Amino acid sequence: MTGTAGSPRRRADGVPEPRHLRVIVIGAGMSGIASVIKLREAGIHDLVVYEKADRVGGTWRENTYPGLSCDVPSHLYSYSFALNPDWTHRFAFGPEIQRYFERVADEHRVTEVVRFGEEVDRLEWRDGRWHARTRRGTTDEADVVIAATGVLHHPRLPDIEGLDTFTGAQFHSARWDHSVPLDGARVGIVGTGSTAVQIVSAIVDRVEHLSLFQRTAQWVMPAENPAYSAEERERFRRDPAALAENHARLSELFALFANAVVDAESPEAAMIEEACRANLEQSVLDPALREKLRPDYRAACKRLIISPDFYQAIQRPNAELVTEKILRVEPQGVRTADGRLHPLDVLVLATGFHTDWFMRPMEIIGRDGRTLSELWDPRPIAYLSISMPGFPNLFMLNGPNGPVGNFSLIEVAELQLAYILQLLERLRDGTVTEICATAEATERFEAERVAASAKTIWVTGCRSWYLDDRGIPATWPWPFARFREVMAAPDLDDYELR
Ligand code: NA7
Questions:
Q1: Average of pLDDT values for 188-209?
Q2: 47 is in which domain, residue-wise?
């Protein structure tokens, strides 16, 4: 029964023999956990997950900053196959999400196939299989690799002069140093993305002084974060149908949001803008501060900030919004262009991530010696963000140019997995041994994607992590319904099957 490399094996009657597949999953975060569960459900049990850290959880393991929460409602940011009646809040906080992933991984015995502390640094397609190597020197082989390596993963440090001269404590938001006391400290935060906003609200009442260094103002969507009552949780526990219905309802609601961001002229986009504008007008009392906080671009052009209390926090007497440009960091604090020194004990760099790295810096060598660095020069490209020409049997979850705009990336990963499993069926039934998107399909998809992005809100005049080096959003520019449709079944004409 076991077939490995080469042409499909055939029985005497010419029918291809089913093939045993060994799969390597890279990363034990949200999508790596889902991969193991779904692969096993499909009958694939020869599996190993390589995880560089010592726990599952991915971005939720790495980010532990105060106030960390998910900007997608908890009941949507859940696996459809492991809905959670016990979410404590509408928008769950980081530790609770981390516990959720750990629990799901344990309950589904995912952890037993995870090799912790093993970072894959090289993958090579040779003799019809993927050969993997880890930093520790472990080697392994598989017929299929699923890259579940995450998006918000490689911290981006700002290019600010003198950062290394600072004598206080300094760290990136994704590398929070919990040994550093905040109570009574003078804390500076660089950045005004979702991360910075959550940190400000969480720590403002603990610190002596908080300086928020804003390069660009943000639109803020107000969203209360009430706790679920014991009765509500009990009802969800007792009635799985109500829980599933709630998940489906939220999914439809967020699909509407998708319609807004992919069509800058839509009524939904105008509604979002109006809600953000009203929030600013009503919440910020001081007209000078209000103007400093008023963005000069359209709402949702940058990733929309969702916060119940940021405006209240930044108006606390010990909070200061600094809009002067940062000149440099000095031993005692941050010097701004007006010549003022902002003395600090702690400097937090909430400056985002290298969102175009994906599996990199891993070295990946595909068919005929073609490298990922070559294919991704000058920027990442993939067919439907899943497959790449010349890289057979390598599939990505939440890869480049997929739906990332304020959706549940869990939902995205689940749809992608269901799609990938259909491709794996072709490998398992023995009809083909290698599958990857054709170069033509990849280029056609990319051209269509770039053309469609002209209508989106992301190109209406702002800088954001969605935009690539050309200013084209590296995202899915169509309604979410279209993503669901496309993910429902692969179009095999777009694949090279060998
Ligand atoms: P983001 O959204 O990429 O935000 C990074 C912030 O850091 C943003 O406000 C940047 O300003 C600012 N930044 C970056 N470099 C500098 C320098 N050199 N000087 C001043 N300010 C700087 O990252 P987050 O971690 O907040 O959020 C990432 C995602 O995680 C988020 O979208 C959610 O999906 C969860 P800019 O706006 O570019 O002027």
A1: 98
A2: 23-154+354-497
